[in-house]
């Protein structure tokens, strides 16, 4: 049992504030800023191409040298270039001649690539997927304004954002969190409590959608998986084991571990498996995604992204999925509990899954352009501190109840061990009598069948029969004959009135034990 306790303690230790694992979106602003920065630089390059040709024709491209040159001539730049760069326009000047429609080389830009928007690795075949509970810090501040959100992400779209309330319907409609979405968009969310699932008590999902297009934002529940490997010599005792995909009593799903990219691909196939014309456009490793999302540290975290396309209502769309993969394995300790013996490592439990699962969808060809708008939604998530405290209290109480049940289980096991001990003691007493009778039988000179001929005289065969039936045949002075009593005791007594006592203690007498009457020791019948 110690091994099971070790695995459970490890699982419980991971829980922490798992009840609010879905509140990781506040940190996505780091990804959003990169995407917005890349788009701003692209706009500057397009607006300032003619200025670069005019003032910086002899400057070597790359390393930000062209940008530095333009800064030196910022007072002479065209209105279009200044506007794109956020500088005051000239009071009266005309744009320099040149082909403004051409774009500067990408080597001119200091912008970082947009991390989440465009997975870049080669896409797997469209016939299949790519090959093979989490806590977060809670913002301790007021909800930011819509204008601040737009400014912080450099988003200059036309949408007006409004606040949507996420309600915990199981706790008096308490405001759990808020999120900002475009005013005309629909929004729905769902909070589910599972008070029996100590590993995964809280499940959250949300969905916002543009009624005028296929644009949509999705937040998915965490995928929590467990797998237990049993040593070959113990598998005969592992009856009724769960099948892959079954829900375990703790709330996790029974599933053998998979690599990060394959795990996300499997989730996509399950989530979008019924769409038409599904294609895998690409995939990308995002090693720092957990850090960008400000997730609490879990073992071996690694971010991944996959971009797909499919047909929705007869029109092509693109959707980018993101998730943070985690995995940890722990082996059982050596066990010595009662009659239980187990070497260390006989059980191996692997805890793994995907945190911060979300996706952004837009009409084909527009997803990257609309990424800043999606980032406004993601960044605007704000948790009600009062609700966060409630979830922690619930989680703590669940863990306390779980540990109490473990203690009760240990007490029941201890009682069962005591029964086993008593049974073994009785078995030892039986074996002792068996050995005694067997020795007497061996010393009898063989089977004596005289009892068949001379008036029922007892023989060694009679003693063997007594052993099989678990009795001793003893002389009984109360009736002048014999009486058969249980052979679990070696010494027998009678008071002459049909009352008998049996014991294994050679110093015992009924009188010493407080029995009333006169008791006589009984002897074995010949």
Structural class: alpha+beta
Number of helices: 10
Distance between the termini: 52 Å
Radius of gyration over alpha carbons?
Answer: 40 Å
Strand content: 25-35%
Give the number of DSSP strands: 19
Low-confidence stretches: 1-35, 92-154
Question: Major β-sheet, in short?
Answer: 9 strands, mixed
* Global outline: rod-shaped
Order of helices and strands, N to C? HHHHHEEEEEEEHEHEEEEEHEHHEEEEE
Helical proportion, percent range:
25-40%
The overall average pLDDT, rounded, is: 74
Write the layout of secondary structure elements.
Blueprint: H1 2-15, H2 29-55, H3 65-72, H4 79-85, H5 146-152, E1 161-168, E2 174-182, E3 186-193, E4 202-209, E5 216-219, E6 223-230, E7 253-254, H6 260-271, E8 276-286, H7 289-292, E9 302-312, E10 315-331, E11 335-337, E12 340-342, E13 347-363, H8 367-379, E14 382-383, H9 385-442, H10 460-469, E15 471-476, E16 481-486, E17 491-494, E18 500-503, E19 520-522
């Amino acid at each position: 049992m110690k091994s099971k306790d070790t695995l459970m303690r490890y699982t419980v230790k991971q829980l922490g504030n798992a009840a609010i694992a879905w509140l990781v979106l506040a940190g996505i602003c780091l990804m959003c800023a990169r995407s917005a920065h890349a788009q701003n630089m692209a706009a500057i390059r397009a607006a300032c191409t003619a200025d670069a040709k005019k003032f910086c024709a002899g400057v070597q491209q790359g390393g930000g040298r062209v940008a530095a040159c333009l800064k030196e001539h910022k007072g002479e730049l065209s209105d279009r270039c200044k506007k794109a760069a956020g500088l005051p326009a000239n009071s009266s000047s005309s744009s320099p001649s040149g082909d403004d429609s051409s774009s500067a080389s990408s080597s001119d830009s200091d912008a970082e690539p947009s991390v989440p928007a465009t997975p870049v690795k080669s896409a797997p075949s469209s016939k299949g997927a790519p090959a093979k509970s989490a806590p977060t810090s809670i913002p301790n501040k007021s909800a930011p304004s819509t204008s601040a959100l737009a400014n912080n992400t450099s988003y200059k779209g036309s949408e007006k954002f409004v606040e949507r309330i996420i309600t915990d319907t199981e706790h008096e409609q308490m405001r759990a969190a808020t999120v900002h979405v475009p005013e005309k968009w629909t929004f729905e969310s769902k909070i589910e409590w599972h008070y029996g699932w100590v590993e995964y008590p809280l499940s959250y999902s949300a969905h916002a959608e543009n009624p005028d297009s296929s644009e949509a934002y999705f937040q998915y529940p965490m995928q929590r998986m467990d797998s237990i490997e049993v040593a070959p010599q113990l598998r005969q005792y592992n009856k009724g084991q769960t099948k892959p995909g079954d829900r375990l009593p703790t709330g996790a799903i029974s599933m053998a571990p998979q690599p990060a990219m394959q795990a996300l691909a499997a989730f996509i196939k399950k989530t979008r498996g019924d769409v038409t014309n599904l294609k895998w456009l690409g995939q990308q490793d995002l090693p720092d995604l957990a850090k960008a999302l400000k997730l609490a540290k879990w073992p071996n975290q690694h971010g991944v992204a996959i971009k797909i396309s499919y047909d929705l209502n007869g029109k092509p769309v693109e959707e980018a999925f993101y998730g943070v993969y985690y995995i940890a394995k722990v082996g059982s300790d050596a066990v010595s509990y009662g009659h239980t013996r187990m070497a260390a490592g006989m059980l191996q439990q692997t805890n793994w899954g995907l945190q911060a699962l979300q996706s952004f969808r837009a009409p084909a060809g527009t997803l990257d352009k609309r990424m800043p708008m999606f980032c406004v939604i993601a960044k605007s998530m704000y948790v009600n501190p009062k609700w966060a405290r409630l979830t922690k209290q619930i989680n703590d109480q669940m863990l306390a109840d779980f540990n109490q049940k473990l203690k009760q289980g240990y007490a029941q096991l201890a009682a069962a061990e005591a029964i086993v001990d008593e049974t073994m003691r009785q078995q030892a007493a039986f074996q002792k009598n068996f050995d005694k009778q067997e020795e007497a039988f061996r010393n009898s000179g063989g089977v004596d069948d005289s009892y068949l001929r001379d008036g029922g005289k007892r023989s060694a065969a009679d003693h063997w029969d007594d052993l099989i039936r678990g009795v001793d045949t003893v002389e009984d002075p109360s009736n002048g004959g014999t009486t058969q009593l249980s052979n679990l005791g070696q010494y027998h007594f009678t008071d002459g009135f049909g009352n008998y006592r049996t014991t294994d203690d050679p110093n015992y007498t009924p009188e010493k034990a407080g029995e009333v009457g006169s008791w006589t020791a009984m002897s074995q019948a010949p």
